[in-house]
Amino acid sequence: VRGWQIRQPDGPSAVALAELPDLVDPAALVVGVRAAGVGFPDLLMSWGKFQVRQPTPFTLGWEGAGEVVSAPANSYFAVGDRVMTLSFGCYAEQVAAVPETTFALPDALSYEQGAALPLNYLTAIAGLQRRGGLQDGETVLVQGAAGGAGTAAVQVARALGARVFAVVSSEEKADVARAAGAEEVFLISADWRAAVIEASDGGVNLVYDPVGGSRFTDCLRCLASEGRLIVIGFAAGEIPEVAVNRLLLKNIDVRGCTWSVLANAPDGLRQAASELGAMAEAGAIRPPVGATFPFAQAREALQTVEQRHSLGKTVLTVSP
Ligand SMILES: NC(=O)c1ccc[n+]([C@@H]2O[C@H](COP(=O)([O-])OP(=O)(O)OC[C@H]3O[C@@H](n4cnc5c(N)ncnc54)[C@H](OP(=O)(O)O)[C@@H]3O)[C@@H](O)[C@H]2O)c1
Fold first, then answer.
1. pLDDT tens across 255-292, in order?
2. pLDDT the model gives residue 109
């Protein structure tokens, strides 16, 4: 069994292909990986900067889709099931899958689309619905709306009945955000803040922000009274600070969110996954797969993310 490992956290160029032990074990949930999602957290892991530290060497990757190759009796799973999983080590031909974060892959989705789903779409449900309290008909502004987290938020917000605005850095990315379902797309090179406030008649109800950095204060300025800014990540690198007088003056909230908040409710993750499954079967969400790389090119896949070139979700095809 082959997998891409981090021996030293020196970034994408230091990721190395290794021969790993076969994991198949009737007492454990093991997935034969067909496709792995490549996202910003993988990049952070490759540099040793991710919030969860794994001892080296470890196999890279956090999400994937494939077929169950072994499963304990009386589990949710049987050998041969098509699944998607949020489990460390997905850049490999087999992964020891975490049962709580492994879900049926909707029939409507390919393995590549399934690999693009668990992390970003669960985060979208967590951020928009649970932390954001999004109501039908509200307006959402998504930053980095052509990336993996961004396209997921655009699609889920639309599926939940919101009007969706998007902010991106290029015309090519604007097309991706529009294809994901954004009603209006604004370029960061223009005065997007004024345009968003005008298009939303005074401000949006929710900002979904996986980017952070220098645009953060403008995001706060885009909120309507009782608006919520959901902090998802810091792809721009810089962690912004909040002058809390702004929160008071405008009656607004800044709320942090990770997908794991869904686990606070009994069976919350499985419920969210089945809600996403229903959206996928109904055609309301369809993870946009951008660049797809063969298994041999894990480094190039990570570099796509590092160079800010993600268009939708970057995917590594593990076994075709
Ligand atoms: N909270 C959670 O549970 C959770 C879950 C998933 C991901 N995240 C976080 O969300 C963030 C986005 O992840 P992702 O996988 O969606 O990444 P991605 O696909 O690469 O998208 C990131 C977007 O950020 C924007 N960006 C601005 N400055 C950037 C820079 N210097 N380098 C790269 N991108 C830059 C880019 O959009 P423009 O070019 O249009 O500006 C890009 O499309 C990461 O911080 C990740 O850790 C958090």
1. 999 999 999 999 999 999 999 999 999 999 999 999 99
2. 98
**Sheet bearing 223-231, strands edge to edge:** 184-187, 163-168, 139-143, 204-209, 223-231, 253-256
Burial class (CB in 10 A: 0-12, 13-18, 19+), 73: exposed
49 within ligand 1 shell (Cβ under 6 A): no
126 Cα: distance to centroid of ligand 1 (angstroms)? 17
Ligand 1 atom at shortest distance from the alpha carbon of 235: 45
Cα distances from 39 to residues 47, 207, 282, 305, in angstroms, run: 13, 21, 26, 7
Q: How far apart are CA 275 and CA 97, in angstroms?
A: 21
Residue 70 CA, chain-centre distance (Å), reads: 27
Q: Contact 64/103 with Cβ under 8 angstroms?
A: no
Phi, psi of 152 (to 5 degrees): -65, -45
150-197 pLDDT, tens digit per residue, is: 999 999 999 999 999 999 999 999 999 999 999 999 999 999 999 999
Q: Which atom of ligand 1 is nearest to the CA of 149?
A: 16
**Spatial CA neighbour of 206 closest among 147, 156, 168:** 156
Distance CA 180, CA 154 (A): 6
Tokens describing residue 143: 């930053």
Which pTM value belongs to this model? Answer: 0.97
How many Cα atoms occupy the beta-carbon half-sphere of 59 within 13 Å?
24
181 neighbors 162 (Cβ within 8 angstroms):
no
Ligand 1 pocket check for 259: Cβ under 6 Å: yes
